[in-house]
Amino acid sequence: MRLVWPKRCDHRGQLLRNHTCGGSTIRRPSRSAWRCVAQLPETRQQPAGRLRTKSGKTRTAAVQQLVRIEEDGAYVGLVGGSPRPKKAVQQRLEKLPVQLDSRDARFVTELVSGVTRWKGRLDWVIRELRPRGSIDPLLLQILRLGVYELVELGLPDHVINDHVDMARKLVRPEAAPVTNAILRRITRMRRDGTLPAPEVAPGAGLKERAAMLAIAASHPVWMVERWVQRYGEAETVKLLAANNRRPMYSVRVNRLRVSPAELQQRLEDNGVECEPSPFLPDDFLRIRRGLREVMAQGALSEGLCQVQDESAGMVVALLDPQAGERVLDACAAPGGKALFAAARMQGRGHLMAMDASERRLKGLAATAEQQGCPPGFLTVRAADLQGFATEQARAGGELFDRVLLDAPCSGLGVLAKRADLRWRRTPSDVAAAAALQDELLHSAASLVRPGGLLVYSTCSIEPEENEDRVESFLLSHNSFRPEAAPGSLVTSGVLTEAGHMATLPHRHGTDGAFGARLRRAD
Ligand SMILES: C[S@@+](CC[C@H](N)C(=O)[O-])C[C@H]1O[C@@H](n2cnc3c(N)ncnc32)[C@H](O)[C@@H]1O
Fold it and tell me: Residue ranges of the chain with pLDDT lower than 70?
C-alpha cells in the first residue's frame, strides 16, 4: 500500500471523512494540513527563529546525541554520560568533542527531542524520497535532522548547507550529494505544497487506517492499533496528539516548608506562569510557562517543591498515608511519591522507601532531609521486594498499615515526557511487565496488616497492566477486596466505574496513570 497525502480531515479526528479543516477545505498537501491530521503544534511554538541562527556545531552535537539515544538507549531528556560501551557509529563521532554553552545546549535538546518524537514520520518521508537501498545509520540521523528542521520547524533552505557538510565530514564525501539531493527536493516540495503525506484509501480497514495514523502521528503501528480498538479512531487521534504535545509539568509543593499560595507568589515574581492544580489544588501547581525559571531561582534546590506529575500525586492521595502510621513504598526509587507521602505524614510515624535499585535510590535520604523529614522517620532500603517479603514472613516481621506498589511498567502513559519510549517498547514488554506485576503484587500483599491498605499503581494506560492485574490478584487473594476511592481523596473525574483512578493524557492533561485501593480484611 502506498500512503499518500490525505485530502481532508477535521479537528474532531474524523480522519478522511470530512472535507474541512478549521472551516476551510484542504485541497492539496500542505504543512498545515499535515498538522491537522495529527493535531500537531504550530511551528511558531518552536524556537525556529533562534534555531535559524545556530551553527553546524550545534547540529553536530544534536547528531551525536541522536546516535547515543539510538545505540545506547540514552534518555532523550538527559544530556550526559552513558555507562554502556560505545558502539560503532559513536566511535566514529568520538573524535568530535563539541563544546556548547547552555543556550546552545538547550537548542540541541529541542532538536534531539523533536527528531526523537517525529522519527517515524521523518523516516517515512525519507523513504518516500529514497525508496531503495540501505542508508548508513549516521547519514540517516543527519537526514532526519534535516527533514525535521525543514518540514516540522520550517527553517529556511540554507540550513541544508550544514547537513550536507556533516554528511561529507562525518559519513564520507559521497554522502554529501545524496544529502543535498534529498533535502533540496524537500525544499522544493514544501514550496510547491507537494510534500509526501500518508493517506488511506476509502473503505480501508482498521489496520490500514491505523498504519496511516501511526505515520502521521509518528507512533508505532501496534500501539495505534490497540488504542483504536479500545478508544475508537477519533479519541485515538486526541491521545496521539497529547503524546506529541510539549508536556505540561507541575510541581508538588512541600507544605512542610511553604504554602502553595506563598510558592505561587514567589514563582510568579520570578516570571513563572503557574496555577493551582485542578486535581490537587492544595499540593500541586501547574507550570504553564517557565519550568527553567523554577529551577534557576532555587525553589527546587531549597526543597520548597519538586517536579512531579499530578497523576503521581493522585496515587499518593489514594494511599492517603496518615501521621503516626507504618507505611511501605515498595518500589520507591527515585522517590517522588515517597517524598509526597512523607509530607502527608508530617514526618510522624515510619516510612520505608524500598527499591531493588540502589543506584536509583541514591540521593533520596538527602532530599528527604532537605525537605524537612525528621531523623528516624524515613528508612531508605535497597532490596528486592520479593526477597524482603519472604524474609519478613520467615522472621515474623511487623506488617505495614499501608503499602504502595508503584510497579515497574511499560510507561505507555508517559510518552509525552519520554519521547524515546514509544520506539523502545514492544507488545511483549507489556506482557512481561504484567507477569512481574503479578509477582510483586503477591509479595506486597503479604506485607499489609489485617485491615490495612494496599495501593497498586502504574504509569501505563494499558488494561493488561492495570485493571486486569487487579482482577487477577483478587481472584487469588480472597482476603483482599477492592475499595472505590472516596471522593474526598481524588475527584470523581479521574475514577473508573469500578472506582479505580485512571488518568489519560488527552482527557486529563496529565500523564496516563492508574491506581487501585485494595483493602485487606480484618
Ligand atoms: C515506576 S518505578 C517507581 C517510581 C517511584 N515510585 C517514584 O514515584 O519515584 C518502579 C521501580 O520499581 C523498582 N523495582 C523493580 N523490580 C523491583 C523489585 N523486585 N523489588 C523492588 N523494586 C523493584 C525499579 O527499580 C523502579 O525504581
Answer: 1-54, 73-99
| Whole-number average pLDDT of the chain | 86
Q: Residue 355 Cα, ligand 1 centroid: separation in angstroms?
A: 5
Task: Return the half-sphere exposure (C-beta side, CA atoms, 13 A cut-off) of residue 423.
Answer: 22
Please give the annotated binding residues, written as ranges.
331-337, 355, 384, 406
- What is the pTM (predicted TM-score) of this model? 0.86
Closest to 24 measured CA to CA, from 12, 34, 33:
33
Which H helix or E strand runs over 456? strand 448-458
Which among 126, 121, 158 has a CA at the least distance from the CA of 142? 126
| Residue pLDDT, tens place only, 293-337 | 888 888 998 999 999 999 999 999 999 999 999 999 999 999 999
382 lines ligand 1 (CB under 6 A): no
154: amino acid identity, one letter: G
- Pocket perturbation via mutation, ligand 1, pick of 307, 331, 358, 469 by most ligand atoms within 8 A of CB: 331
Q: Which phi and psi angles does 403 have, rounded to 5°?
A: -125, 130
Phi-psi region of 372 (alpha: psi -120 to 50; beta: other; left: phi over 0): left
pLDDT of residue 49: 43
DSSP string for 315-333: HHHHH---TT-EEEESS-T
- Tell me if residue 21 is catalytic: no
Q: 466 CA distance to ligand 1 centroid (A)?
A: 16
Cα separation, 430 vs 367, in Å, equals: 32
Looking from the CA of residue 408, the nearest atom of ligand 1 is 10
Q: How far is the CA of 354 from the centre of ligand 1 (A)?
A: 8
Residue 24 CB burial class (10 angstroms; 0-12, 13-18, ≥19): exposed
Q: Is 413 in the pocket of ligand 1 (CB under 6 A)?
A: no
